[in-house]
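thought: user wants a sequence for this fold. calling inverse folding tool.
action: design(structure=
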């Protein structure tokens, strides 16, 4: 059809007939306009600053020729002509795709409003005015980089959108911090609509940098509203996607520690306090975050304090309810009206009560067993206290003296020994939990009244299952050599399981290789100890038990070398125990006389200092002296055994009389005196000699 019409028009033109508008003029008639009809769009919503492509569709109303245009209009109906102005904003990139389809780009300058999309062809409106498509623009939702800041402002934040929403505002958008929802147009500034005067716009129109105004105060939460201009009545173009919260400014306290139960005065200074005018401030101490309004009822009453102000300094007395071991935020309010006066500042650091450290002695014991213990401190924690209170608890010490199902009072009456020491009796309610050793906090108070407060940090007392020792606890081996190595067996009840659960010692020298055989028996190996009778100590989580005089350490030595030819002098290395307690005789110059100092002898058999029938002689005297004895340690000594000069019965060396070949014993003795002379000595001495063992045997023979 188009082709035949074109052919007809060509023939008419060649024949001298006019066509189109010219023909109309010649014929005295007008060209009929396109019939207005329904137009639809494929996207009916947008955002300030968003440039997007939308498509308008109709039923062949857009024609195939003539200029195609489109406006976004806030007028009541689409204007008949496509004139762009403040209420009719021209679309860009308008393209006739077909006679029934037109694409266009939405203008970047659209503000939040409801727009009619008006399409023109050849300057003539093709929309049906009563069925005009609607395009609704909403404010952009820029994101704030910071959502909190100090009350009183002064800090900078940014509001950024993915779209250049600030294009419509140029370089001077208006910004309002609004407690209620952002108004659609800006309103006169007041306490809940606070205008920001310092705003800059990024080159790409996506970001506003805003200095938070001084009227932004705690504890308010604000919407950040961005307007087309700074004048009242300007259109909203941006509503922050996240809120901005004004926090109370942090202030520094004159002290962050103080006495238990308060009574001390604190001060703090901030410029914001000068703005309080005639308002009398007040303070809350809080173990949680500061409340947005002052509290002076219920539990908070004990933590509330009146305050005074001098210019920009606030002073207050710490209330009696401020108790250890809690830590407190200090919250300052513009007034003392409960539930109403707003928060204006809070401490930058928490306030706490430093309590002195203590030690508990003993710090372990048997479950469900009364035991007297002490608490000691280097500080005078009991100064002014006459009758302390004590509780035991697995959980933390309570701020005030409390006795209940988990906080057990000490038995009897705890006693103040000095300003630094208190004694108490562990109650039988202190028991193991779950069958394993259990640690209890020992809590010391300045009395037993319900309002008595802690005077120190907690001590620790651990209980475990009870352990006992048999009356004769060593059932295998009750004696052994001083250098150790004897296997002993210990009997009792309640011996615990687990590596390291049992430690034990004889005379303070530990038993090694302890092995629990069952709940009533364990074994261990002795370590070196000076000769003598000693007691047993057994330690478990339940404490330490002792039994006196249960084991005898005897001199037992080992000699290297253990052989040498007669008529020689040989150096001996002797191991044993207790050597450091002995003072060896000075045998330099050949002085081998018996005296009250220690000696090392070569003896034919077992040494005996008992008096022989001849007064002043020994029943079995030495045959040679190991001279120049020197203790290297408690367990080792060196000496030179002289086999060239045999000693006579009186202990005198016989020149040119070597020791005869044979098997002898090396003996270490604590005194060279015969027994009778040792007993008569002042102080009295008891002769003690190393015992005869295989290690002490020495053979004189040719190699």
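)
observation: tool returned 703 residues.
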């Amino acid at each position: 059809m188009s082709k035949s019409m074109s052919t007809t028009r060509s023939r008419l033109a060649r024949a001298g007939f006019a066509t189109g508008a010219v023909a109309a003029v010649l014929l005295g008639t007008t060209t009929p306009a396109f019939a207005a009809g329904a137009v639809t769009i494929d996207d009916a919503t947008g955002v300030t600053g968003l440039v997007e492509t939308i498509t308008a569709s109709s039923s062949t109303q857009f024609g195939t020729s003539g200029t195609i245009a489109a406006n976004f209009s806030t007028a009541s109906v689409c204007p008949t002509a496509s004139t762009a102005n403040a209420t009719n904003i021209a679309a860009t990139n308008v393209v006739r795709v077909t006679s029934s389809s037109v694409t266009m780009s939405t203008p970047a300058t659209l503000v939040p409003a409801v727009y009619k999309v008006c399409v023109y062809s050849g300057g003539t409106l093709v929309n049906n005015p009563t069925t005009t498509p609607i395009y609704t623009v909403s404010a952009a939702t820029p994101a704030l980089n910071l959502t909190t800041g100090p009350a009183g402002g002064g800090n900078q934040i940014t509001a950024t959108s993915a779209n250049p929403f600030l294009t419509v505002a140029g370089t001077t958008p208006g910004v309002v911090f609004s407690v209620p929802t952002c108004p659609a147009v800006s309103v006169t500034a007041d306490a809940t609509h606070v205008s920001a005067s310092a705003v800059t716009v990024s080159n790409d129109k996506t970001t506003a940098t805003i200095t938070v105004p001084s009227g932004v105060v705690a504890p308010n939460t604000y919407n950040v509203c961005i307007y087309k201009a700074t004048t009242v009545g300007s259109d909203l173009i941006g509503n922050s996607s996240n809120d901005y919260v004004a926090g109370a400014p942090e202030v520094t306290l004159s002290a962050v520690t103080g006495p238990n139960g308060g009574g001390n005065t604190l001060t703090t200074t901030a410029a914001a306090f000068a703005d309080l005018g005639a308002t009398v401030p007040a303070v809350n101490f809080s173990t949680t975050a500061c409340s947005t309004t002052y509290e002076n009822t219920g539990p908070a009453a004990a933590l509330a304090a009146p305050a005074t102000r001098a210019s920009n300094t606030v002073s207050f007395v710490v209330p009696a309810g401020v108790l250890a071991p809690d830590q407190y935020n200090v919250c300052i309010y513009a007034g003392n009206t409960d539930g109403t006066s707003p928060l204006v500042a809070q401490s930058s650091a928490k306030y706490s009560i430093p309590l002195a450290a203590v030690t508990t002695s003993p710090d372990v014991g048997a479950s469900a067993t009364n035991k007297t213990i002490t608490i000691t401190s280097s500080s005078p924690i009991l100064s002014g206290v006459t009758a302390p209170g004590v509780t035991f608890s697995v959980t933390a010490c309570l701020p005030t003296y409390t006795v209940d199902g988990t906080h057990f009072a000490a038995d009897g009456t705890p006693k103040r020994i000095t300003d630094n020491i208190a004694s108490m009796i562990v109650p039988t309610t202190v028991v193991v939990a779950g069958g394993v050793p259990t640690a209890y906090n020992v809590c010391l108070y300045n009395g037993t009244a319900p309002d008595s407060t802690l005077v120190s940090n907690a001590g620790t007392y651990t209980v475990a299952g009870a352990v006992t020792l048999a009356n004769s606890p060593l059932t295998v081996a009750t004696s052994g050599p001083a250098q150790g190595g004897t296997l002993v067996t210990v009997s009792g009840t309640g011996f615990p399981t687990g590596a390291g659960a049992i430690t034990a010692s004889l005379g303070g020298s530990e038993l090694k290789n302890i092995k629990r055989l069952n709940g009533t028996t364990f074994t261990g190996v002795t370590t070196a100890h000076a000769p003598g009778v000693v007691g047993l100590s057994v330690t478990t989580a339940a404490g330490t038990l002792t039994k006196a005089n249960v084991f005898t350490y005897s001199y037992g030595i080992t000699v290297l070398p253990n052989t040498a030819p007669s008529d020689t002098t040989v150096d001996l290395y002797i191991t044993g125990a207790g050597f450091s307690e002995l003072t060896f005789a000075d045998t330099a110059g050949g002085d081998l006389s018996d005296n009250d100092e220690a000696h090392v002898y070569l003896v034919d058999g077992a040494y005996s200092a008992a008096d022989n029938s001849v007064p002043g002689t020994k029943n079995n005297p030495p045959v040679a002296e190991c001279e120049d004895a020197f203790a290297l340690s408690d367990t080792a000594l060196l000496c030179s055994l002289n086999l060239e000069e045999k000693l006579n019965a009186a202990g005198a060396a016989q020149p040119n009389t070597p020791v005869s070949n044979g098997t002898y014993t090396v003996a270490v003795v604590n005194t060279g005196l015969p027994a009778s002379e040792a007993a008569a000595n002042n102080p009295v001495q008891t002769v003690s000699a190393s015992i005869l063992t295989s290690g002490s045997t020495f053979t004189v023979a040719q190699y």
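thought: summarizing for user.
answer: Here is the designed sequence. The first helix runs from residue 2 to 14.
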